[in-house]
Request: fold
Amino acid sequence: MKTEIPFTRRDFLKLGSFLAASVSIPGKWAEIFAAGLEKMTSHTPVVWIQTQSCTGDSVSLLNSTDPEPADLLTRYITLVVHQTLGAAQGQTFMKALDDAAFLNGYLLVIEGSIPLGMPQACLIGGRPAEEILVKLIPKAKAVVAVGTCSAFGGIPAAEGNPTGSGSVQDLMNKHHLSWKRKLVNCPSCPPHPKPIIGTLAYLAAKGYPEVDEVLLTPRFFYGTSTHDQCPRYHDYERKIFSRHFGDPHGCLFKLGCLGPLTRTECPHRQWNGGVNWCIRASAPCIGCSSPHFAKKKNFPFYRLGEKHHSVEYTEKDRKGV
Reply:
Protein backbone atom coordinates (compact mmCIF):
# COMPACT_ATOMS: atom_id res chain seq x y z
CA MET A 1 0.00 0.00 0.00
CA LYS A 2 2.93 2.31 0.57
CA THR A 3 4.10 4.56 -2.25
CA GLU A 4 7.54 6.10 -2.56
CA ILE A 5 7.03 9.68 -1.42
CA PRO A 6 9.99 11.46 0.14
CA PHE A 7 9.82 12.56 3.78
CA THR A 8 11.74 15.15 5.68
CA ARG A 9 12.70 15.02 9.34
CA ARG A 10 10.33 17.94 9.83
CA ASP A 11 7.39 15.80 8.64
CA PHE A 12 8.04 13.17 11.30
CA LEU A 13 8.64 15.71 14.07
CA LYS A 14 5.45 17.55 13.16
CA LEU A 15 3.32 14.41 13.51
CA GLY A 16 5.24 13.29 16.61
CA SER A 17 4.44 16.65 18.20
CA PHE A 18 0.75 16.24 17.37
CA LEU A 19 0.69 12.82 19.04
CA ALA A 20 2.42 14.09 22.18
CA ALA A 21 0.35 17.26 22.43
CA SER A 22 -2.91 15.31 22.10
CA VAL A 23 -2.41 13.79 25.53
CA SER A 24 -0.44 16.62 27.13
CA ILE A 25 2.70 14.56 27.68
CA PRO A 26 6.21 16.08 27.76
CA GLY A 27 7.79 17.30 24.54
CA LYS A 28 10.49 14.61 24.61
CA TRP A 29 7.82 12.15 23.46
CA ALA A 30 7.56 13.98 20.16
CA GLU A 31 11.08 12.79 19.28
CA ILE A 32 10.21 9.20 20.25
CA PHE A 33 7.01 9.16 18.20
CA ALA A 34 8.81 10.79 15.26
CA ALA A 35 11.55 8.12 15.34
CA GLY A 36 8.91 5.38 15.45
CA LEU A 37 6.98 6.79 12.51
CA GLU A 38 10.19 7.01 10.54
CA LYS A 39 10.87 3.33 11.19
CA MET A 40 7.33 2.32 10.25
CA THR A 41 7.70 3.83 6.80
CA SER A 42 10.32 1.30 5.82
CA HIS A 43 11.51 -1.09 8.52
CA THR A 44 8.50 -2.04 10.65
CA PRO A 45 5.59 -3.55 8.69
CA VAL A 46 2.13 -3.77 10.24
CA VAL A 47 -0.12 -6.83 9.90
CA TRP A 48 -3.73 -5.98 10.84
CA ILE A 49 -6.17 -8.86 11.40
CA GLN A 50 -9.91 -8.43 12.02
CA THR A 51 -11.76 -11.14 13.89
CA GLN A 52 -15.17 -10.75 15.62
CA SER A 53 -15.35 -7.05 14.95
CA CYS A 54 -17.78 -4.44 13.66
CA THR A 55 -14.82 -2.79 11.87
CA GLY A 56 -15.34 0.26 14.07
CA ASP A 57 -11.69 0.36 15.11
CA SER A 58 -10.57 0.49 11.48
CA VAL A 59 -13.16 3.16 10.75
CA SER A 60 -11.81 5.14 13.68
CA LEU A 61 -8.30 4.85 12.26
CA LEU A 62 -9.63 6.37 9.04
CA ASN A 63 -10.89 9.35 11.04
CA SER A 64 -7.31 10.40 11.58
CA THR A 65 -6.73 14.09 10.95
CA ASP A 66 -3.00 14.51 11.54
CA PRO A 67 -2.10 12.94 9.19
CA GLU A 68 -5.08 12.50 6.92
CA PRO A 69 -6.17 8.86 6.27
CA ALA A 70 -4.67 8.66 2.81
CA ASP A 71 -1.28 9.87 4.03
CA LEU A 72 -1.45 7.62 7.09
CA LEU A 73 -2.02 4.45 5.08
CA THR A 74 0.11 5.21 2.05
CA ARG A 75 3.02 7.14 3.54
CA TYR A 76 3.47 6.50 7.25
CA ILE A 77 2.42 2.89 7.83
CA THR A 78 3.68 -0.10 5.85
CA LEU A 79 0.38 -1.92 6.11
CA VAL A 80 0.95 -5.31 4.47
CA VAL A 81 -2.34 -7.03 5.39
CA HIS A 82 -5.79 -5.68 6.23
CA GLN A 83 -9.01 -7.47 5.27
CA THR A 84 -11.10 -4.39 4.49
CA LEU A 85 -8.59 -1.64 3.71
CA GLY A 86 -6.35 -3.74 1.48
CA ALA A 87 -7.01 -4.25 -2.23
CA ALA A 88 -6.04 -7.94 -2.29
CA GLN A 89 -8.90 -10.43 -2.39
CA GLY A 90 -9.34 -14.21 -2.43
CA GLN A 91 -6.22 -16.32 -2.94
CA THR A 92 -4.10 -13.19 -3.44
CA PHE A 93 -5.03 -12.01 0.05
CA MET A 94 -4.44 -15.44 1.61
CA LYS A 95 -0.99 -15.62 0.01
CA ALA A 96 -0.18 -12.16 1.40
CA LEU A 97 -1.38 -13.40 4.79
CA ASP A 98 0.83 -16.49 4.63
CA ASP A 99 3.82 -14.45 3.46
CA ALA A 100 3.35 -12.00 6.35
CA ALA A 101 4.51 -14.65 8.81
CA PHE A 102 7.97 -14.50 7.22
CA LEU A 103 8.42 -10.74 7.52
CA ASN A 104 11.04 -9.40 9.90
CA GLY A 105 9.94 -7.52 12.99
CA TYR A 106 6.32 -6.92 12.11
CA LEU A 107 3.77 -5.45 14.49
CA LEU A 108 0.61 -7.54 14.71
CA VAL A 109 -2.60 -5.56 15.28
CA ILE A 110 -5.70 -7.56 16.23
CA GLU A 111 -9.16 -6.00 16.02
CA GLY A 112 -12.10 -7.88 17.54
CA SER A 113 -12.55 -10.72 19.99
CA ILE A 114 -11.77 -14.36 19.22
CA PRO A 115 -14.40 -17.17 19.39
CA LEU A 116 -12.31 -19.48 21.56
CA GLY A 117 -15.16 -21.92 22.15
CA MET A 118 -16.36 -22.03 18.53
CA PRO A 119 -13.41 -21.45 16.14
CA GLN A 120 -15.61 -21.88 13.06
CA ALA A 121 -17.59 -18.78 14.08
CA CYS A 122 -14.86 -16.58 12.59
CA LEU A 123 -13.18 -17.79 9.41
CA ILE A 124 -10.70 -15.98 7.17
CA GLY A 125 -10.39 -17.61 3.77
CA GLY A 126 -12.00 -20.73 5.19
CA ARG A 127 -9.51 -20.97 8.04
CA PRO A 128 -10.33 -20.27 11.70
CA ALA A 129 -9.02 -16.86 12.73
CA GLU A 130 -7.72 -18.49 15.90
CA GLU A 131 -5.49 -20.80 13.84
CA ILE A 132 -4.12 -17.88 11.81
CA LEU A 133 -3.37 -15.78 14.88
CA VAL A 134 -1.58 -18.60 16.68
CA LYS A 135 0.73 -18.80 13.68
CA LEU A 136 1.35 -15.04 13.49
CA ILE A 137 1.70 -14.13 17.18
CA PRO A 138 4.98 -15.95 18.01
CA LYS A 139 6.83 -14.27 15.11
CA ALA A 140 5.54 -10.75 15.74
CA LYS A 141 7.74 -8.10 17.36
CA ALA A 142 4.73 -7.06 19.42
CA VAL A 143 0.98 -7.63 19.49
CA VAL A 144 -1.42 -4.70 19.80
CA ALA A 145 -5.02 -5.48 20.77
CA VAL A 146 -6.98 -2.56 19.30
CA GLY A 147 -10.44 -1.88 20.70
CA THR A 148 -12.21 -3.18 23.80
CA CYS A 149 -13.30 -6.39 22.03
CA SER A 150 -9.73 -7.57 21.45
CA ALA A 151 -8.39 -6.08 24.68
CA PHE A 152 -11.03 -7.42 27.07
CA GLY A 153 -13.61 -9.36 25.04
CA GLY A 154 -16.12 -6.53 24.73
CA ILE A 155 -19.64 -7.00 23.40
CA PRO A 156 -18.99 -10.35 21.56
CA ALA A 157 -17.83 -11.81 24.88
CA ALA A 158 -20.84 -10.62 26.82
CA GLU A 159 -22.31 -13.01 29.36
CA GLY A 160 -24.23 -15.83 27.64
CA ASN A 161 -22.52 -15.55 24.23
CA PRO A 162 -22.47 -18.97 22.50
CA THR A 163 -19.06 -18.60 20.81
CA GLY A 164 -16.95 -18.47 23.96
CA SER A 165 -15.40 -15.22 22.76
CA GLY A 166 -12.42 -13.85 24.60
CA SER A 167 -9.63 -11.32 24.40
CA VAL A 168 -6.24 -11.64 22.75
CA GLN A 169 -4.77 -12.29 26.18
CA ASP A 170 -7.27 -15.15 26.63
CA LEU A 171 -6.18 -16.56 23.27
CA MET A 172 -2.50 -16.39 24.23
CA ASN A 173 -3.19 -18.05 27.57
CA LYS A 174 -5.14 -20.83 25.86
CA HIS A 175 -2.20 -21.63 23.56
CA HIS A 176 0.49 -21.07 26.20
CA LEU A 177 1.91 -18.06 24.35
CA SER A 178 3.72 -15.60 26.57
CA TRP A 179 2.05 -12.18 26.57
CA LYS A 180 4.42 -10.50 29.03
CA ARG A 181 6.28 -7.60 27.37
CA LYS A 182 4.68 -8.57 24.08
CA LEU A 183 0.96 -7.72 24.29
CA VAL A 184 -0.27 -4.12 24.54
CA ASN A 185 -3.98 -3.32 24.93
CA CYS A 186 -5.46 -0.18 23.36
CA PRO A 187 -9.12 -0.38 24.46
CA SER A 188 -12.14 1.87 23.85
CA CYS A 189 -15.12 1.38 21.61
CA PRO A 190 -13.56 2.46 19.36
CA PRO A 191 -10.11 3.77 20.31
CA HIS A 192 -9.09 7.15 18.94
CA PRO A 193 -6.58 6.96 16.06
CA LYS A 194 -3.89 8.76 18.07
CA PRO A 195 -3.44 6.01 20.71
CA ILE A 196 -3.30 3.44 17.90
CA ILE A 197 -0.70 5.32 15.85
CA GLY A 198 1.22 6.48 18.91
CA THR A 199 1.48 2.99 20.40
CA LEU A 200 2.66 1.52 17.09
CA ALA A 201 5.23 4.32 16.74
CA TYR A 202 6.54 3.78 20.27
CA LEU A 203 6.87 0.01 19.69
CA ALA A 204 8.81 0.67 16.50
CA ALA A 205 11.11 3.22 18.12
CA LYS A 206 11.67 2.04 21.69
CA GLY A 207 10.13 -1.40 22.02
CA TYR A 208 7.72 -2.46 24.72
CA PRO A 209 6.27 0.54 26.63
CA GLU A 210 5.46 0.99 30.30
CA VAL A 211 1.99 -0.49 30.79
CA ASP A 212 -0.57 -0.92 33.53
CA GLU A 213 0.30 -4.22 35.21
CA VAL A 214 -3.28 -5.50 35.06
CA LEU A 215 -4.84 -3.86 32.01
CA LEU A 216 -1.68 -3.94 29.83
CA THR A 217 -2.56 -0.45 28.56
CA PRO A 218 0.27 2.00 27.71
CA ARG A 219 0.51 4.54 30.50
CA PHE A 220 1.26 7.46 28.19
CA PHE A 221 -2.23 7.19 26.68
CA TYR A 222 -4.25 5.49 29.43
CA GLY A 223 -2.48 6.68 32.57
CA THR A 224 -5.20 8.78 34.18
CA SER A 225 -8.94 8.47 34.63
CA THR A 226 -11.36 10.36 32.42
CA HIS A 227 -12.87 11.75 35.61
CA ASP A 228 -9.60 13.36 36.74
CA GLN A 229 -9.12 15.13 33.41
CA CYS A 230 -12.77 16.10 32.97
CA PRO A 231 -13.44 19.81 32.43
CA ARG A 232 -16.39 19.44 34.83
CA TYR A 233 -14.21 18.03 37.61
CA HIS A 234 -14.37 21.33 39.49
CA ASP A 235 -18.17 20.87 39.64
CA TYR A 236 -17.66 17.42 41.15
CA GLU A 237 -15.46 18.90 43.87
CA ARG A 238 -18.03 21.60 44.61
CA LYS A 239 -20.85 19.01 44.56
CA ILE A 240 -22.62 20.73 41.69
CA PHE A 241 -24.33 17.99 39.68
CA SER A 242 -26.24 17.96 36.38
CA ARG A 243 -29.98 17.49 36.78
CA HIS A 244 -30.79 15.89 33.43
CA PHE A 245 -29.12 14.57 30.25
CA GLY A 246 -28.07 17.47 28.09
CA ASP A 247 -27.62 19.77 31.07
CA PRO A 248 -24.64 21.99 30.12
CA HIS A 249 -23.86 22.66 33.75
CA GLY A 250 -22.61 20.45 36.58
CA CYS A 251 -20.87 17.12 36.97
CA LEU A 252 -22.64 14.15 35.31
CA PHE A 253 -21.65 11.72 38.08
CA LYS A 254 -25.16 11.36 39.52
CA LEU A 255 -26.58 10.70 36.05
CA GLY A 256 -24.49 7.55 35.80
CA CYS A 257 -21.17 8.80 34.40
CA LEU A 258 -18.52 6.05 34.44
CA GLY A 259 -15.61 8.45 34.04
CA PRO A 260 -14.13 7.52 37.45
CA LEU A 261 -13.80 3.89 36.28
CA THR A 262 -12.46 4.72 32.84
CA ARG A 263 -8.96 5.57 31.69
CA THR A 264 -8.69 7.46 28.40
CA GLU A 265 -7.30 10.73 27.16
CA CYS A 266 -10.69 11.75 25.66
CA PRO A 267 -10.80 15.07 27.58
CA HIS A 268 -7.57 16.24 25.88
CA ARG A 269 -7.88 15.39 22.22
CA GLN A 270 -11.66 14.77 21.92
CA TRP A 271 -13.19 13.35 18.73
CA ASN A 272 -13.94 14.29 15.13
CA GLY A 273 -10.84 16.41 14.83
CA GLY A 274 -11.17 17.79 18.35
CA VAL A 275 -14.72 19.04 17.82
CA ASN A 276 -16.55 17.26 20.62
CA TRP A 277 -16.75 14.31 23.00
CA CYS A 278 -19.34 12.70 25.29
CA ILE A 279 -19.01 15.02 28.29
CA ARG A 280 -18.92 18.17 26.20
CA ALA A 281 -22.16 16.98 24.60
CA SER A 282 -23.54 16.71 28.16
CA ALA A 283 -23.75 12.91 27.99
CA PRO A 284 -22.20 10.70 30.70
CA CYS A 285 -19.15 8.57 29.90
CA ILE A 286 -20.28 4.96 29.28
CA GLY A 287 -16.90 3.49 30.24
CA CYS A 288 -16.17 1.92 26.85
CA SER A 289 -12.47 1.41 27.64
CA SER A 290 -13.22 -0.39 30.91
CA PRO A 291 -12.57 -4.17 31.09
CA HIS A 292 -16.10 -4.48 32.51
CA PHE A 293 -17.73 -2.86 29.47
CA ALA A 294 -20.72 -4.95 28.31
CA LYS A 295 -19.51 -8.06 30.14
CA LYS A 296 -22.71 -8.72 32.11
CA LYS A 297 -26.26 -9.12 30.81
CA ASN A 298 -27.50 -6.49 33.19
CA PHE A 299 -24.70 -4.04 32.44
CA PRO A 300 -26.27 -0.59 32.08
CA PHE A 301 -24.32 1.92 30.02
CA TYR A 302 -25.03 4.42 32.76
CA ARG A 303 -24.89 3.62 36.46
CA LEU A 304 -28.32 3.48 38.02
CA GLY A 305 -27.68 5.42 41.15
CA GLU A 306 -25.22 3.64 43.43
CA LYS A 307 -26.91 0.22 43.18
CA HIS A 308 -25.03 -0.68 39.99
CA HIS A 309 -21.31 -0.14 39.38
CA SER A 310 -20.68 1.37 42.78
CA VAL A 311 -17.71 3.65 42.27
CA GLU A 312 -14.77 2.98 44.52
CA TYR A 313 -12.86 6.10 43.67
CA THR A 314 -9.87 6.99 45.80
CA GLU A 315 -6.95 9.36 45.62
CA LYS A 316 -4.84 6.38 44.51
CA ASP A 317 -6.62 6.60 41.16
CA ARG A 318 -5.20 10.07 40.64
CA LYS A 319 -1.85 8.73 39.49
CA GLY A 320 -0.49 10.40 36.38
CA VAL A 321 1.81 9.13 33.68
About this structure: The longest strand covers residues 46-50. Residues 306-311, 317-321 have pLDDT under 50 and may be disordered. Strands lie at 46-50, 79-81, 107-111, 114-115, 123-124, 127-128, 142-146, 165-166, 183-186. The CA atoms of residues 117 and 164 lie 4 Å apart.
